[in-house]
Amino acid sequence: MDASPRRPTRSDARLNRERILAVARTAAAENNEVSLTAIAKQAGIGIGTLYRHFPNRESLILALYRQELQKLIDLVPELLESSPPLVALRRWFEEIARYGRLKFGFAEVIHAATSGGVDDEHYRPFVVAIAQLLEAGAADGVLKPGLDPEDVLLQLSVLWRIDPAAGGEARAARILDLIVDGLRVSAPPR
After folding, report:
1. What is the phi-psi region of residue 117: left when phi exceeds 0, alpha when psi lies from -120 to 50, beta otherwise?
2. What is the mean pLDDT of residues 115-144?
3. Which of 49, 100, 140, 146 is paired with 109 by a 20 to 30 Å CA distance?
4. Per-residue pLDDT reduced to its tens digit, 66-92
5. TM segments (predicted)?
6. Domain-by-domain residue ranges, the chain?
7. Longest dimension (CA), the chain
């Protein structure tokens, strides 16, 4: 066991890590096959610097995954404060669809590394975030009471199986309509 105290991350190292993640997020949204060398070049750093932060492609993918999940979790209180519950729910689901486009192609790596999600440190907070949205909607009378947030998560998981290159954005919007309609107290007339 290492008894030496951990040194705080230097600010330049922190900035490099943030820049790598930002470039990787953009690159992954455009093409999930982008190389680590291309990411390092776009981030304006050497490949050795990238490897110090992320020893392999999987570690970079998992860091992106964790960062995006935390952003989604953190967004719930903000949405509930600024929008009616049904609008907040729909906007959050749209963000999940956007995240699904990022996750497409990486799902197998993420699934394997997180034991299918249940053992993931973000799983429970993500389910709690869904529960907050569902409870707010039920209290407002627009969503069915007693909905199971894990059931809703299973419904949403289809979003990261939609190929963004094959009309994925339109398909995701249609699927979100189906999910939201199923959660509502009564579906709106068509």
Report:
1. left
2. 87
3. 49
4. 888 899 999 999 999 999 999 999 999
5. none
6. 8-55, 57-183
7. 65
Residue 169 is inside which H or E element, if any?
helix 168-183
In angstroms, the CA 23 to CA 44 distance is 10
CA dist., res. 64 & res. 58, Å (int): 10
- CATH for 8-55 is 1.10.10
At the second CATH level, the architecture of 57-183 is Orthogonal Bundle (1.10)
Helix (H) and strand (E) counts for the chain?
A: 9, 0
Token pair, residue 60, equals 């970079």
pLDDT higher than threshold 90 for residue 190: no
- Residue 9's pLDDT is what? 58
Helix, strand, coil percent content, the chain, rounded in steps of 5: 70, 0, 25
Other CB atoms within 10 Å distance of the CB of residue 134: 22
Q: What are phi and psi of 143, to 5 degrees?
A: -115, 150
pLDDT of 1 above 50: no
Cα(19)–Cα(2) distance, integer angstroms? 30
pLDDT at 122: 78
